[in-house]
Amino acid sequence: MKYKAIKFSRSNQAEFISDLRKRVKEHFETNKISVYGNATMVTKTIVMFLLYFAPYALMLTGVITNTWILLLMWAIMGIGMSGIGLAVMHDANHGAYSKNKHVNKYMGYVMNVIGASAFNWKVQHNVLHHSFTNIEGMDEDIDPGKLMRLSPHAPLLKVHKLQHIYGWFLYGLMTFLWLTTKDFKQLYRYKKLGLLKAQKRTYTGVLIETIISKIVYYGYALVLPLIFIPAPTWVVLLGFFIMHFITGLSLGLIFQPAHVMPTTEYPIPDDTGNLETNWAVHQLFTTTNFAPKSKLFSWYVGGLNFQIEHHLFPNICHVHYKKISKIVMETTKEYGLPYNSEKSFMDAIVAHGKMLKSLGRSQMA
Question: Which residues pair with 289 in a beta bridge?
């Protein structure tokens, strides 16, 4: 089914999102604050970039030569890369980092700087994932390939019985797919779906942009370290792997427990592509928050532990999610709608693991 054929109800519980938007708007107007980023966001951006580029500079200039400390530097770069993706690039590509469109555009292109395609990410995440959350065949976040089954409507294979064991390792390999084949496969798929025209881009233009960005990335992130870091080749290659594994695992552990959970649903459109609920209510049934009281954790992951708020208000910067979460929670309660939330990050991981096990052993979860 083509993405344009899927339609949400415009009448079923439509009052919920109307009232919620009014209340959230009043919150910003009453407190005279912008929905975009603030000084906290700027500070966070600087910290994340330093976590990524400072260790790189220390290694490349030969300040650090000890093998174990070198590997530690690569690990810190992985933490920084994850932070850039979660807490900087993410808001920018949603147009929420700044009211200045040019700032959002160029901060969003940080995705290319760390080895992936900002264009592909925006289509996969903004267009498909946010529009059709947990809908089989539409939401690519629940379609990682044959080795993982993240939807009860996906084909069940024998190997899936062990996915709750090996799945965590595959999450760590996520960014390696970006570095190699995924961006090119996605771009070709988006061309066939007509999504490039909708974004006013051409296949050739995005392809050239992607190839150039990958050459630049491999050049500074791998070739230069191999040339200038005073260490054996295997140390540099291992460090590069550690950096990307930390990034992939971090992204997997933040995004997947937000939607692949025992409490979330996987709605199926009818034969004509219609869904019973409206878009906002659909987000509530397919999304889960976690660790809402952990300030440091929320700071690092770009507020994405408040996934419900993010999905309902993707154009609001994440620095505001915690405060508007009270409004969202009260409104969902008033309308008798679900507000799924796990007390801690570990609770979310455990629940996600149980869901992986369930999806690996039954046709329907």
Answer: 341
- pLDDT tens per residue across span 153-209: 999 999 999 999 999 999 999 999 999 999 999 999 999 988 998 888 999 999 999
Per-residue pLDDT, 363: 58
221 phi and psi, to 5 degrees?
A: -85, -20
Other beta carbons less than 10 A from residue 347's beta carbon: 14
User: How far apart, in whole angstroms, are the C-alpha atoms of residue 326 and residue 312?
Assistant: 13
Collapsed DSSP state (helix, strand, coil) of residue 364: coil
Phi-psi region of 115 (alpha: psi -120 to 50; beta: other; left: phi over 0): left
Residue 324 near residue 304 (C-beta atoms within 8 A)? no
For 289, the 3-state DSSP assignment is strand
Tell me phi and psi for residue 341, to 5 degrees: -155, 135
Whole-model pTM above 0.90?
yes
Backbone angles phi, psi at 7, to 5 degrees: -130, 135
**Does residue 150 sit in helix, strand or coil?**
coil
